[in-house]
Design goal:
The structure holds two protein chains of two kinds.
Chain A: E1 5-16, E2 19-30, E3 34-38, H1 45-53, E4 60-65, H2 74-80, E5 81-84, H3 96-106, H4 111-124, H5 140-152, E6 158-162, H6 170-187, E7 190-194, H7 198-204, E8 207-212, E9 215-220, H8 222-230, H9 239-249
Parallel strand pairs in A: 3-7, 3-8, 5-6, 6-7
Antiparallel strand pairs in A: 1-2, 1-4, 8-9
Helix pairs in contact in A: 3-4, 3-5, 8-9
Chain B: H1 2-17, H2 19-45, H3 47-52, H4 56-62, H5 70-86, H6 91-96, H7 99-103, H8 109-142, H9 149-179, H10 183-212, H11 223-237, H12 241-253, H13 268-276, H14 283-314
Chain lengths: ~250, ~325
């Protein structure tokens, strides 16, 4: 089915002055998938995400998110897509509830509706006991979970998560991954997950794309990629080995 | 519109709860009140002379209390309020990573900058209106003066010009907060520009005027050269928003002033008029005299805001 594809990049490219950040990407993400978006630092992952959100104008090619061109319908795309940036910031003098209220306000959600929603999201992210603490005193793991709650307040169809587990302790990273997985399973939210934590990506994603130096060098399920690189169908190869193999070849 | 209102509400709330605004507000309110109070007490002692003036109520604002009048004080230190409200408005959000969060919400990007600017202007308006009303209340209580309709109109116009003047500095500081990433740099740059335009421009004007039309003190200089000298000086000092503002408000608050130019620049008829006929200018005429000043202030404010608007809209925001 055509409508199955929720994110599509067609020859998507971005050039800054003379530097090419993204070099003609082609890939698709299907509805309800968790797509692992891998690649070394500076490979152009964040730039790609910004283009998919309509925050950065592509130099060539085009993108389609939820059936719309983000550079033309940025506002509509942003109502359906939640984006958690790599180093998400908060207003330190607000508490968790006030932060969520502000985001709800920006999304045009009425106050009463927002309050119910905020309670629900604080429960989901395990922040219900810290609801009245100032965000400035939050730990990094709590901030990341609050960030997730903030992007969920608009009931997105798609989530873009840019390095959500970076700098988290193993327990915090695990909790975050569990939340992401439950969102995908229970609410059928499509997730585009950019991460360096290959072990976790392997656990929760259906398919992965490996991006190196602005180009997508591999795309598919982990089994397909293992088959392609090592000629075996078995799952004994970890994503890490596959990734390193691609990385060495480029 | 939903985004604009949300940003506006948040910013207004932030302004009124921030210490630096409260401190500056307290300072300006206090000094204004003291000067007006002293002017009021002074007037109380000279009630006879007061009976002769046409618009005694306005003297609360224009009569120098200790060293300066309330109007002069706002001209000097009003800009500081505008600068303090705006110098970190964009780059603080950028530094804390909240700017990217704002613009990934389903709002138009200009809602962010419009909301911030409008919230600043609203803060300034509330502050000035409060000070003006308190001083008026003072006047009613101390000297038992009731302002007439024309005086109220003049105060209203004064209020509008003052809001415009302080908003100009707000727009300047927002512009700097967009163009400089570092908060310290934008604060320094806006304060430097304020000090230069407000205090040093007169020195520069003197320098240029004396170079263009040198006045020799020993010999009698020709009248044309003196006029040229003064004209150059006035033209250059008009670059300063403070001069624009002072001239405009002085004429509005003091109906006896019939022109913004100095005595040297007056034509013979003008001189005769001001000496012979001690009658106040009507409100419409006062407004006409300072209309160019008002428009210039408004235009500079809008240009500054337009430049920051465009810069903000085309910038790529990644953090």
């Amino acid at each position: 089915m055509v409508t199955d594809t929720i994110i599509e990049a067609i020859d998507l490219g971005k050039t800054y002055r003379k530097q090419t950040a993204v070099n003609g990407l082609n890939f698709q993400v299907k509805k309800g998938e968790v797509f692992g978006f891998l690649g070394p630092n500076g490979a152009g992952k964040t730039t790609t995400l910004l283009m998919l959100l309509g925050l950065s104008r592509p130099s060539r090619g085009m993108a389609k998110v939820c059936g719309m061109d983000p550079s033309r319908h940025a506002r509509e795309v942003k109502t359906r897509v939640g984006y958690l940036p790599e180093n998400v910031g908060f207003y330190g003098d607000l508490d968790a509830i006030q932060s969520l209220e502000y985001v709800a306000d920006l999304n045009g959600i009425s106050h009463d509706e927002a309050l119910d929603k905020i309670r629900e999201l604080l429960d989901l992210t395990g922040l219900d006991r810290d609801a009245n603490k100032k965000v400035g005193n939050f730990s990094r793991g709590m901030k990341q979970r609050l960030g997730i709650a903030e992007v969920l307040i608009k009931d997105p169809e798609v989530l873009f998560l840019d390095e959500p587990t970076i700098g988290l302790d193993p327990d915090g990273a695990m909790r975050l991954m569990e939340i992401i997985q439950s969102l995908n399973k229970d609410k059928n939210i499509t997730v585009l997950l950019s991460s360096h934590n290959l072990h976790q990506v392997q656990k929760i994603s259906n398919r992965v794309g490996i991006m190196i130096k602005g180009s997508m060098v591999a795309e598919g399920s982990i089994e397909t990629l293992a088959h392609e690189k090592f000629g075996v169908d078995e799952k004994e190869y970890s994503l890490e080995e596959i990734y390193m193999k691609y990385f060495q070849e480029v | 519109m939903q985004g604009l209102y949300a940003v506006f509400k948040k910013e207004l709330c932030d302004h009124f709860s921030s210490y630096r605004f409260v401190i500056l507000f307290a300072l300006i309110a206090m000094v204004s009140l003291i000067t007006s109070y002293m002017a009021g007490v002074h007037m109380q002692g000279n009630l006879e002379a007061l009976a002769k003036t046409k618009f005694p109520f306005l003297m609360l604002f224009s009569a120098p209390g200790a060293m300066f009048s309330m109007v002069q004080f706002v001209a000097f230190f009003g800009p500081l309020i505008g600068l303090v409200l705006g110098f970190d408005s964009i780059n603080r959000e950028r530094a804390h990573g909240t700017l990217i969060k704002l613009i990934t919400q389903p709002i138009y990007r200009d809602s962010v900058i419009n909301g911030k600017f409008i919230a600043g202007v609203a803060t300034i308006s509330i502050m000035l209106l409060a000070i003006l009303l308190v001083i008026s209340g003072f006047g009613l209580a101390i000297i038992g003066l009731v302002p007439g309709i024309e005086e109220i109109w003049r105060l209203f116009i004064y209020l509008i010009i003052s809001i415009c003047y302080i908003s100009l500095w707000l727009a300047v500081s927002i512009l700097f907060s967009i163009s400089f990433r570092s908060i310290a740099t934008s604060a320094l740059a806006s304060v430097a520009l304020w000090i230069f335009l407000s205090f040093f421009i007169s020195l520069g004007a003197d320098l240029v005027a004396n170079a263009v039309a040198p006045i020799d003190e020993k010999e009698n200089t020709q009248a044309e050269i003196v006029i040229k000298n003064v004209r150059t000086k006035e033209m250059i000092s008009l670059v300063s928003p403070m001069v624009l503002y002072s001239e405009a408000t002085a004429t509005i608050i003091d109906p006896m002033r019939k022109t913004t130019s100095s005595v040297v620049m007056m034509g013979p008829m003008e001189e005769l008029l001001s000496a012979r006929f001690q009658s106040p200018l009507s409100l419409g005429q006062s407004v006409m005299v300072v209309f160019p000043h008002m428009m210039a202030l408004l235009a500079i404010t809008l240009i500054c805001f337009a430049v920051s608007y465009i810069m903000f809209m085309v910038q790529e925001i990644r953090t």
